[in-house]
From TrEMBL:
InterPro entries (UniProt xref): Aminotrans_V_dom (IPR000192), Pser_aminoTfrase (IPR022278), PyrdxlP-dep_Trfase (IPR015424), PyrdxlP-dep_Trfase_major (IPR015421), PyrdxlP-dep_Trfase_small (IPR015422)
Role, per record: Catalyzes the reversible conversion of 3-phosphohydroxypyruvate to phosphoserine and of 3-hydroxy-2-oxo-4-phosphonooxybutanoate to phosphohydroxythreonine.
Cellular component annotations (GO), alphabetically ordered: cytoplasm
Gene3D superfamilies: Aspartate Aminotransferase, domain 1, Type I PLP-dependent aspartate aminotransferase-like (Major domain)
Pfam family, one: Aminotran_5
Alphabetic keyword roster: Amino-acid biosynthesis, Aminotransferase, Cytoplasm, Pyridoxal phosphate, Pyridoxine biosynthesis, Serine biosynthesis, Transferase
Gene: serC
Name used for this protein in its record: Phosphoserine aminotransferase
Record note on cofactor: Binds 1 pyridoxal phosphate per subunit.
Cofactor: pyridoxal 5'-phosphate
Length: 360
């Protein structure tokens, strides 16, 4: 067996220790005599896994009792519709900040449910920066303000939040648990698991309890946040194995020293990679340096015609999935929590070597 460094944006690399533990428990989970995949979601065994996942996530993110943790399905893309469907009931509009591909998709879906007030957009700047929060167009009577603090495709990340009385709803799919955040500043956080938490199939939702009152009975039952909360994420069969894997990742994260410790590693990894890009005329990253993503690092080669060779040779060197998103081209290295510093160093070493051989 040989494992490579996997820079895929999602589904992304998982910690090897987690995969090994899952492997060791695959046929017989804790003496149950069956795999987690084969047990009833209503069994006491699975209920203990679900409870463990919630408790660990609460500790890792310091989530207070004011919030409900839900495990939803359908990917973050389903939440793009589910959120306005639940949270705009009784309101005439919702504010959206447009900072890239994922916020744009969220806006497109929200328009099917409500009047979208564009709070600000950096589209004119090719999404290479973040709109000035001081000039945002906010409707005080809106249901919420939606934003995407890490644009996975563009490689744009911002840590600050706008100053507003509106509940902030944030798509943290590609940045959850990578840095410390103050959950109490959010009305709702959601994140598809397959970037930084676990396998595809489950979406983590952290919803302030008062917002659950907005969910109307007219919603499809499985879409209703209040019903989901009342049934502990089990209106119907939840993605049990994905939740189990998420719990193992949370356990691994606790063993790493928690979010504060992993954040320091993420800073070191991103700094090293951006320094390598900036220190060369051969590579470039277009993002406003104040808003460069720690998780997704896009870069271009000065000579575009070398891209295919770069991808071919990097793959042969054990560095997998470095191609940029089809909509932006170039390269992209996703360096989530599970990517060790050694993987980033291996990439930097390859980039230097490649430049040495193909650069002018
Ligand atoms: C990947 C991603 C999504 C979409 O996730 P799906 O699970 O494929 O629906 C949405 N938002 C962000 C920020 C993402 O990175």
């Amino acid at each position: 067996m040989s494992r490579v460094y996997n820079f895929c944006s999602g589904p992304a690399a998982l910690p090897e220790a987690v995969l090994e533990k899952a492997q060791s428990e695959l046929l017989d989970w804790h003496g149950a005599g069956v795999s987690v995949m084969e047990m009833s979601h209503r069994s006491s065994e699975f209920k203990s896994i679900l409870a463990s996942a919630k408790a660990r996530l609460s500790r890792l993110m310091n989530i207070s009792d004011d919030y409900e943790i839900l495990f939803a399905q359908g990917g973050a893309s389903t939440l793009f519709a589910q959120i306005p469907a639940n949270l705009t009931h009784g309101f005439n509009s919702a504010c959206y900040l447009d900072t890239g591909a994922w916020s744009s998709k969220a806006i497109k879906e929200a328009k099917k449910y409500t009047n979208v007030v564009l709070a600000g957009s950096s589209k004119e700047q090719s999404y290479h920066t973040v709109p000035d929060f001081a000039t945002l167009n906010l409707d005080d009577s809106a249901a919420y303000l939606h934003l995407c603090p890490n644009e996975t495709i563009g490689g744009l990340e911002f840590a600050d939040l706008p100053d507003t009385s509106l509940p902030i709803v944030a798509d943290l799919s590609s940045t959850i648990l990578s840095r410390q955040i103050d959950v109490s500043r959010y009305g709702m956080i959601y994140a598809g698991a397959q970037k930084n938490v676990g396998p595809a199939g489950v979406v983590i939702c952290i919803v302030r309890k008062d917002l659950l009152a907005r969910s109307s009975d007219t919603l499809p039952t499985v879409w209703n946040f209040a019903t989901l909360a009342a049934n502990d994420s089990m209106i119907n069969t939840p993605p049990t194995f994905a939740i189990y894997l998420a719990d193992l990742v949370f356990e691994w994260l606790e063993a790493q020293g928690g979010v504060a410790a992993i954040e320091q590693q993420n800073i070191a990894k991103a700094n090293a990679l951006y320094a390598a890009i900036d220190g060369s005329d051969f590579y470039a990253n277009p993002i406003d340096p104040r808003y460069r993503s720690r998780m997704n690092v896009p870069f271009t080669l000065a000579d575009e015609s070398l891209e295919a060779t770069f991808l071919e040779e990097s793959k042969a060197a054990g560095l997998r999935t470095l191609e940029g998103h089809r909509s932006v081209g170039g390269m992209r290295a996703s360096i989530y929590n599970a990517m060790p510093m050694e993987g980033v160093q291996a990439l930097i070493g390859f980039m230097r070597d490649f430049e040495g051989r193909y650069g002018k």
